[in-house]
Amino acid sequence: MGPDLNELLARARGDLRLGVPVVLRGATGAVLVAAAETLSSDRLREMQQMGALDMAVTDRRAETLKARPYDGDLARIVVPRDADRRWIEGVADPSEDLARPMKGPLVTRREGNAVLHRVGIALCKAARLLPAALLVPVPADYAASELLTELDAVAAGPLMSGLHALGHVVSARVPLRAAENARLHIFRPGDGTEEHYAIEIGRPDRSKPVLARLHSACFTGDVIGSLKCDCGPQLDAALAQMGDQGEGVLLYLQQEGRGIGLANKMRAYALQDQGFDTVEANHRLGFEDDERDFRLGAQMLGNLGFKSVRLLTNNPAKIAMMSACGIEVTERVPLKVGLSEHNERYLAVKAAKSGHLL
User: Fold this and answer.
1) Beta-strand (E) ranges in the chain?
2) What integer is the mean pLDDT of 26-53?
3) Whose CA, among 23, 204, 237, 299, lies 20 to 30 Å from 16?
4) Is the pLDDT of residue 252 over 80?
5) What is the per-residue pLDDT across 135-148, written as a single tens digit (0 to 9) for each?
6) Is 290 a catalytic residue?
7) CB 259 within 8 A of CB 282
8) Structural contact between residues 327 and 209, judged by C-beta atoms closer than 8 angstroms
9) Residue 118: phi, psi to the nearest 5?
10) Catalytic-labelled residue, pool 71, 93, 230, 290
């Protein structure tokens, strides 16, 4: 019995992070896919020897590069035959955009199918890498001959964008500074990605709206006390309010940096130091404003037996997603804390561009 698709996707994510390419198979043939961020010079030369090489980037990154995204949500950039590792880095990573603004003119493909390119970008995102993939056509039996992970793109694409079932692994009492009557629940997704946590304060009545907070992991704000965001103060304030009321549920979702991962979040911070705001920085990296999936929070609440919440949030998108997933939001409870001279512009941009109620 061979590996199922979730197993293959987990292998593919790990391979790309290691700099090992994977094979994607589709209706039009098979391609070798490598992540631009981790591709070594030797592997780049090997791929160039196989044939015409494409770099797939999102339309957000293409806009910065002045590359035409003929496929709508992505651009297939033709990689020059003499391109080296530095050229690949310059196109994929915006850190030197201002120092090296002239990267083109870049030629993009207009004809042909972009399905495999789209899945290649999605795999890079899933691996928490820059959303830029290198692709080259290969024979149908290439994966087996080179002992590489092979994926059916038609099946893999929808699975990566779908919601995976979260299994409740374990829970135990964990007394907190904010509330000694707390339990920590661990949820594990079926696709082998990061675990998510639920902190339950007291024993809330499942038949009534519970005070709840969807909190995305923020290492810089939650752990080391960064002043560039309001995440740490929001976490502390939410737990304190639940402790004062004697009950509540805080869902801690492993979606660092609005879903792009800590390394890419630091890239965004570096771009902010160059004068770009938080949304502009995400776009230059090739990401959307917000890559998080709040459906996870709704699933966790449902697994815990809750059907309605009083939601601690300033983000209307969380309210909309809870409602769409069958969790009734009976009240929005504002959570306005953590404003400082270091994050004043960041919070203003969240209000102006992302609709946060600040």
Assistant:
1) 22-26, 29-35, 54-58, 74-78, 132-138, 150-152, 166-173, 182-189, 196-201, 210-216, 248-253, 308-312, 328-333
2) 96
3) 299
4) yes
5) 999 998 888 888 99
6) yes
7) no
8) no
9) -65, -45
10) 290
